[in-house]
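At this stage, I wrote out one protein's amino acid sequence and its backbone structure tokens, and that material follows here:
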Amino acid sequence: MSAPRLAEQAAPPTTSPRRRRAGLLVLATTTFVVVTTELLPVGLLTPISDDLGVARSQVGLLVTVYAFTVGLTAAPLTHWAAGWPRKRLYMTVSAIFSLGTVLSAAAESYPVLAVGRFLCGMAHGVFWSIVAGYAAALAPPGRSGRTTAAVFAGNSAALVLGVPLGTVLGGVAGWRGAFCAAAALGLGALAAAQRLLPGIPHRPAPPRSTGLGGALRLPGLRRMVTATALLVLGHFTVYTYVTPLLHDAAAFSEAATGMLLAVYGLAGFLGTWLGGVLVDRRPHTVLLGTIALMAGSLVLLGASIRVQPLAVAAVALWGVAFAALPVTLQSGVLRLGATAPDAASSWYVSAFNLGIGGGALAGGLLSTFPVEALPWMALISVVPAFVVAWTTRAAFPPPQPR
């Protein structure tokens, strides 16, 4: 991203470094809340099913529908709000997400819970479309990758801490108690954002040439969005069914499977940090390396699924790779879509979440195959994603001098 373009989106120069750091902490906390709330039904599937009197499959469907809601609404809603001041849009989206979480907590029936999740899903798409650009605007020159990684660490924290703690709280205080806790934390982050999050200069709605459709005509961006969809499709083809894969195929006990998933999440912190440190230097090389690491971890997992020490190593490498991917992909999207960052990010968010929903469906459709075949099936989309990402090299702006 060139220096003039960064300057257009940067926080006002009067914003102190301390205020910028506080703003990044607010963004990371909200990211933690959003991802935790998104995945709560996974850990609370049984209590929600029993309490509302619906099949577990219907509760599981909430996650898939949520992902498709994000995928289908992120781009048009972000385009519709393109002219809003960034802080006002951020506050509005966070408030709608909190409203949806409160409605979910108060739901006495499955349809009401579905409406609450639908509200969260619509807000989720716009949130992810603007949060990386907001973080980059708060970054010192040449450090946008690191600030984006700091915010995305909230995603890793949600996987390691948020979802497990929400599941435990749901067992103690009921599933509504878990949603209430998420809503309270989200409202607290909203109040903190009002006070601590620096505003960034108003950016007028982009011209048609760089609007929602025009963004996809920017060099390399369409291929980056395609690579994103393929990578996430492959990942969630396996990850949606990772518990039976580790328990049934790899013969890990339930307790060991839980610990291994914690290892996956902890490895994600390392992946997020590495992605943030390296991506500002050689963005395209780091992107390709991350995809290659993901493909290698899936090969190792598929080949060694019955050799437990190697399976542990494969899961850890997988955690590093997939946590680094959002940082490297989002950084690439912001570079390629520098003239329309929100529109570009909205396409990325749509592709990411359609990949989530598609991966979950693909994993289910492949249930006729042995579960240990899933890592190999995932490579069917991951390998082409590497090829597509490779072809974007010429479109990447050169790294900024340090």
Remarks:
- The chain has two domains: 15-198, 214-396.
- The radius of gyration is 20 Å.
- The chain is about 80% helix and 0% strand.
